[in-house]
Amino acid sequence: MKASRMPFSDVGAGFEPAPTGGGDRDRTFAEGAGHSVSWELVGIATGAAAVAGMAALQVLLAGRSRLRRMRDRLERRSGGVATPGWLSLAAVSTLVPVPTREAVSARLARAGQAGRMSVDAFLRHCLLSGLGGALLGLLAAELLPALGGPLLAGGMAALGWHAPFHRLKRQEQARVRAVLRDLAPVMDLMAAYAEAGLGLSASVARVAGRTAGPLGEELRQTAREIRSGRPVADALQAAARRLGVLQVSRMAGALIRADSLGVPVAGVLREQASLARRERRQAFERALAGLPIKLTLCTVMFIFPVLFVLVILPNVLLFMGARW
């Protein structure tokens, strides 16, 4: 009986089994595992995209079904006299939200336009802007009939109506940023006046004369109301409502409680100033944390296509022209 012979290779003074194809099997297994992992990632991404697409489709279908129901209701009310295009325009107009006069007045106050523009003037401006958008839509429909006249006019009218509100929103945001920038130094200055022996109303009047910007305007308005006989608490609450900033409302509430309880106002102001600075720093940190994502999106959307056109596309054209 012959003993089975296994291949050996000399390594130093000992013997080791020679490779018998196990490395190729391991490499094949690793490649298969890598392909399976990549296919799993592709499957997960495809599933996520499908879920997002289904959600967007549901939202779109819900909006279209609502618009269709509104159009059918208007058609029944008109007795079949109105044309389909004008029915679609009327249905779109019913979906445009119309704010109340109180809401418009509050937004004008937060944007600092309450003394410069009345609610009626702002609504007239919105109406004229909407009519201008409708006329532009009808003109575009005359030049390009395939776009659909009434529906395009309705969309342009809605855009024209919302354009003043969009500008008002930007003014509100700019005003809030200016108030948050000046809030902590103003509270420190008020604390210094309070530590010098001035009362709350006198501190507000002194700080109002030394502060510029939206916060200075509101403080001067508050000082005028206090001089006219309005209670300090009511004047501070009115200023907080006009500004619509959480930090100002919190400061006004803390000052009112401290003044009513006899607590030293200077310590409350120092604490509120420290809290405002900490929140402002945290807001900067959150903005910086989201910056890499925005830069990545800008790179993908604007830089990569240019690189493709300038670097890769000429080589592709040369390759196709060579007819390999």
Summarize the topology:
Layout: E1 8-11, E2 14-17, H1 22-78, H2 84-95, H3 101-110, H4 119-143, H5 149-195, H6 200-210, H7 213-227, H8 232-243, H9 246-261, H10 265-289, H11 291-322
Antiparallel strand pairs: 1-2
Compressed to H and E, one letter per element, the order equals: EEHHHHHHHHHHH
Q: Give the end-to-end Cα distance, rounded to a whole number of Å.
A: 63 Å
Structural classification = mainly alpha
Mean pLDDT: 73
Low-pLDDT residue intervals, each spanning 5 or more residues: 1-23, 25-63, 85-95
Tell me the β content. under 5%
Please bin the fraction of helical residues: over 70%
Q: What is the helix tally?
A: 11
Account of the 3D structure:
- Among the domains are: 84-172, no CATH class; 176-289, Receptor-associated Protein.
- It is flat, with a radius of gyration of 35 Å.
- The chain contains eleven helices and two strands, in the order ββααααααααααα.
- α4 (119-143) runs antiparallel to α5 (149-195), α7 packs antiparallel against α8 (232-243) and α9 (246-261) runs antiparallel to α10.
- The longest helix is centred in the first third of the chain and has 57 residues, at 22-78.
- With 324 residues, the chain is an all-alpha fold.
- It has a two-stranded antiparallel ribbon with strand order 1-2.
- Helix content is 81%, strand content 2%.
- Residues 1-23, 25-63 and 85-95 have low confidence and may be disordered.
